[in-house]
Amino acid sequence: MTGSNAIGFVLVGVLLLLLKLVATGPVANWSWWVVLAPFAAAAIWWQFADSVGITQRAAAEREGRRVARRREERLAALGLRPGKSGSGTARAGRDGVAPPSVAGPAGAKPPEDEPGGQRRQ
Fold first, then answer.
1. How many CB atoms lie within 10 A of CB 87?
2. Are 39 and 9 in contact, with CB atoms under 8 Å apart?
């Protein structure tokens, strides 16, 4: 929304500037101040949007959506699905095997067999 407001001013300014330079229509008789006013309005809007944080919030929201989308794509590629609670804990994949980061630190010994031939869980 922020960019579209200022871009509208710039587009109107470019159109009026071209009409003034070509000297066609009623714009040929207008003052240069009127023709260049949309550029000033765009500059004022950008200054206002930056001072109240509109631009910063919009950028943060876009970045947040991008990060969330990439996170979900990567989890799906690993066969993991994010939990509904959003706890952030990894779960075992489709084959029931936990990823290495969940299984334990690198170089750790696998658990010993329990009596009865079953592994500890």
1. 9
2. yes
Give 31's strand partners: none
Considering the entire predicted model, what is its pTM?
0.46
First vs last C-alpha separation in the chain: 53
Q: List per-residue pLDDT tens for the chain, 121 residues long.
A: 455 678 899 999 999 999 999 988 888 899 999 999 999 999 998 888 888 877 778 888 899 999 999 999 998 888 887 655 455 555 555 666 655 555 555 555 555 555 555 555 5
Q: How far apart are CA 29 and CA 23, in angstroms?
A: 8
State the DSSP string of 76-104. HHHT----TT--------TTSPPPHHHH-
The amino acid at residue 94 is R
Query: Mapping DSSP to helix (H, G, I), strand (E, B) and coil, where does residue 42 land?
Result: helix
